[in-house]
Write a structure and sequence with these properties.
The protein has 321 residues and is of the alpha/beta class. It has nine helices and 18 strands. The chain has two domains: 165 residues, Quinone Oxidoreductase, Chain A, domain 1 (Alpha-Beta Complex); 129 residues, Rossmann fold, CATH 3.40.50. 26% of the residues lie in helices and 27% in strands. The chain binds NADP nicotinamide-adenine-dinucleotide phosphate (NAP). NADP nicotinamide-adenine-dinucleotide phosphate binds next to helix 1, helix 3 and helix 4.
């Protein structure tokens, strides 16, 4: 079948390992289903996979794509939940030490067909297109858990989102605005800040800019480049929720500020199946849908990867079949 895959780990030149070609048809084990892919979205995770981060060398070649939407054999339309837990695990599957994401151990969704455990295929809301639904399972689910499960923030409080145009950032802006938080956003260019404003940000700022007042929570996926700003931005008792470190994982900890102002730093990863179901409902109830910055046929996946690598995002990048 047609597939977009990582041939081998390529730490310094991820695009060199990106291959658009053919892979064997998958077979669904007992309890799994085959999904005919209609759309799948690109995440930074796919660039990490090409670099060989978070995946064992023996797992290559690996079909990329940890987000997708498609159709089951009986015609029902589904959204993929990418977190594959161990069958013996009960409770929050993001805490299962044996859990993997699609593309870590199991093949991903940039292909004609992807196989997943039956519970990982959720009904697609009729109001979302396949391209929109394909944004929900990773970036949007991560943002949902950061904001509604991990942060403890309430409507009326102020949140700072680091980054304007990325998949997780744009989701945080839309979700925060819809939930009644005051949404402040940093962005690296005027164009990106304009996008954040269009998506509902109440105020936008250049990266690292002094803010008019301190915020209740900061939302981090950038890491080293913005961490000190996020720490300085918090009110006493404020929270940083972090789910990524694109610019580097080792920022200064600023421990004195952390304990003296009684700040909280909370890690967050993906979300549960139940949270994905709640996210899909929330989008319907609040009338929001993901911003797609680029929609390309899957054959042109390399163009989308190059855009993300260059930081040229304007919302989610989606590949369609
Ligand atoms: N833990 C999880 O479950 C999980 C899930 C999803 C994503 N992630 C992680 O979250 C990160 C973002 O993923 P994504 O798919 O949203 O990527 P993306 O679409 O490429 O977005 C990248 C974002 O990072 C910002 N950024 C990058 N470098 C920056 C720098 N040097 N200074 C300031 N801002 C910078 C960009 O800001 P501008 O808009 O200003 O350019 C943009 O908003 C990745 O590290 C990914 O691995 C983790």
């Amino acid at each position: 079948m047609f597939a977009v895959y990582a041939a081998e780990p390529s730490p310094d030149d991820p695009l060199a390992a990106l291959t658009v070609g053919e892979r064997p048809d998958p077979t669904a084990p007992d309890g799994w289903v085959a999904v005919t892919v209609k759309a799948a979205s690109l995440n930074m995770h796919d660039l990490w996979t090409l670099r060989g981060v978070g995946i064992k060398a023996e797992q290559f070649p690996m079909i990329l794509g940890c987000d997708g939407a498609g159709v089951l054999a009986d015609g029902s339309e589904v959204v993929l939940h990418s977190v594959v837990g161990d069958p013996s695990w009960s409770g929050d599957e993001t805490l299962d030490p044996k859990r993997t994401l699609l593309t870590e151990k199991h093949q991903g969704a940039f292909a004609d067909t992807v196989v997943v455990p039956a519970r990982n295929a959720l009904p697609k809301p009729a109001g979302l297109s396949f391209a929109e639904a394909a944004c929900m399972g990773t970036a949007w689910l991560t943002a949902y858990r950061m904001l509604f499960v991990k942060s403890g923030l309430r409507p009326g409080q102020t949140m700072l989102v680091q980054g304007s145009s990325g998949g997780v950032s744009t989701a945080l802006i839309e979700l925060g605005k819809a939930a009644g938080l005051r949404v402040w956003v940093t962005g690296r260019t005027e164009e990106k800040r304009a996008l954040a404003a269009e998506l509902g940000a109440h105020q936008t700022f250049e990266s690292g800019a002094r803010l008019p007042e301190r915020v209740d929570g900061a939302f981090e996926t950038v890491g080293k480049a913005t961490w000190a700003h996020s720490m300085r931005a918090l009110k006493p008792g404020g929270v940083i929720v972090v789910s990524g470190s694109t610019s580097g994982p080792d920022p200064s900890a600023d421990l004195q500020r952390l304990f003296f102002l009684q700040l909280r730093v909370v890690g967050s990863t993906m979300g549960t199946r139940e949270e994905l179901g709640d996210l899909l409902n929330f989008c319907e109830v609040a009338g929001i849908r993901p911003r797609i910055g680029a929609e390309l046929p899957m054959e042109k996946a390399e163009d989308g990867f190059a855009q993300m690598l260059a930081g040229e995002t304007a919302g989610k990048i989606v590949f369609t079949r």
